[in-house]
Specification:
single chain; about 100 residues; mainly alpha; about 30% helix
Protein backbone atom coordinates (compact mmCIF):
# COMPACT_ATOMS: atom_id res chain seq x y z
CA UNK A 1 0.00 0.00 0.00
CA UNK A 2 2.04 2.97 -1.21
CA UNK A 3 -0.35 5.56 0.27
CA UNK A 4 -0.91 3.95 3.68
CA UNK A 5 -4.71 3.95 3.52
CA UNK A 6 -5.52 0.58 1.93
CA UNK A 7 -8.41 -1.10 3.74
CA UNK A 8 -8.65 -4.57 2.27
CA UNK A 9 -6.55 -7.72 2.52
CA UNK A 10 -4.95 -7.16 -0.89
CA UNK A 11 -2.90 -4.39 0.74
CA UNK A 12 -2.05 -6.47 3.82
CA UNK A 13 0.33 -8.85 2.02
CA UNK A 14 3.90 -8.09 1.11
CA UNK A 15 4.94 -7.32 -2.43
CA UNK A 16 5.80 -9.67 -3.99
CA UNK A 17 3.51 -11.99 -2.05
CA UNK A 18 5.06 -14.95 -0.23
CA UNK A 19 5.18 -18.31 -2.00
CA UNK A 20 1.70 -19.88 -2.02
CA UNK A 21 0.44 -16.54 -0.67
CA UNK A 22 -1.15 -17.76 2.60
CA UNK A 23 -0.34 -21.08 4.29
CA UNK A 24 -3.84 -21.04 5.78
CA UNK A 25 -6.95 -18.94 5.31
CA UNK A 26 -6.70 -15.70 7.27
CA UNK A 27 -9.37 -15.10 9.90
CA UNK A 28 -11.29 -11.95 9.05
CA UNK A 29 -12.38 -9.96 12.11
CA UNK A 30 -12.96 -6.58 10.55
CA UNK A 31 -14.17 -4.80 7.44
CA UNK A 32 -10.84 -2.91 7.28
CA UNK A 33 -8.08 -5.29 8.45
CA UNK A 34 -5.15 -3.60 6.70
CA UNK A 35 -6.09 -0.13 7.96
CA UNK A 36 -6.48 -1.40 11.51
CA UNK A 37 -3.12 -3.15 11.32
CA UNK A 38 -1.35 0.08 10.33
CA UNK A 39 -3.34 2.47 12.55
CA UNK A 40 -4.23 0.71 15.84
CA UNK A 41 -4.63 4.05 17.66
CA UNK A 42 -7.42 5.02 15.23
CA UNK A 43 -9.16 1.69 15.80
CA UNK A 44 -9.16 2.20 19.57
CA UNK A 45 -10.56 5.70 19.11
CA UNK A 46 -13.33 4.50 16.78
CA UNK A 47 -14.36 1.79 19.25
CA UNK A 48 -14.43 4.32 22.10
CA UNK A 49 -16.48 6.80 20.07
CA UNK A 50 -19.16 4.17 19.31
CA UNK A 51 -20.28 4.54 22.93
CA UNK A 52 -20.74 8.34 22.76
CA UNK A 53 -23.76 10.14 21.30
CA UNK A 54 -23.55 13.14 18.95
CA UNK A 55 -24.10 15.41 21.97
CA UNK A 56 -21.00 14.01 23.67
CA UNK A 57 -22.89 12.10 26.35
CA UNK A 58 -22.22 8.37 26.87
CA UNK A 59 -24.75 5.94 25.42
CA UNK A 60 -25.84 3.82 28.37
CA UNK A 61 -28.64 1.83 26.73
CA UNK A 62 -27.14 1.27 23.29
CA UNK A 63 -28.61 -2.20 22.90
CA UNK A 64 -32.17 -1.25 23.88
CA UNK A 65 -34.89 -1.02 21.27
CA UNK A 66 -35.75 2.59 20.32
CA UNK A 67 -39.26 2.19 21.77
CA UNK A 68 -37.75 1.14 25.11
CA UNK A 69 -35.40 4.14 25.05
CA UNK A 70 -38.31 6.52 24.39
CA UNK A 71 -40.37 4.97 27.19
CA UNK A 72 -37.45 5.24 29.61
CA UNK A 73 -36.72 8.87 28.66
CA UNK A 74 -40.41 9.78 28.93
CA UNK A 75 -40.61 8.27 32.41
CA UNK A 76 -37.55 10.30 33.40
CA UNK A 77 -39.12 13.45 31.94
CA UNK A 78 -36.29 14.03 29.47
CA UNK A 79 -37.93 13.05 26.18
CA UNK A 80 -39.29 15.20 23.42
CA UNK A 81 -40.89 13.49 20.47
CA UNK A 82 -42.06 14.98 17.19
CA UNK A 83 -44.65 12.77 15.55
CA UNK A 84 -45.16 14.74 12.36
CA UNK A 85 -43.64 17.65 10.51
CA UNK A 86 -46.92 19.28 9.53
CA UNK A 87 -47.59 22.80 10.85
CA UNK A 88 -50.61 23.18 13.10
CA UNK A 89 -53.70 24.23 11.14
CA UNK A 90 -56.75 26.21 12.06
CA UNK A 91 -60.24 24.89 11.41
CA UNK A 92 -60.38 26.62 8.03
CA UNK A 93 -57.40 24.56 6.75
CA UNK A 94 -54.88 27.42 6.67
CA UNK A 95 -51.59 27.19 8.59
CA UNK A 96 -51.62 28.67 12.07
CA UNK A 97 -49.71 31.98 12.44
CA UNK A 98 -47.87 30.95 15.60
Amino acid sequence: DPWGYGNSLEWATSCPPPRHNFTELPRIRSERPAFELHYPHMTERMHAEKEISFTGKPLHNRHQAPSEQIAEATAAGTATLTLDAEPERRDDGKPDDR
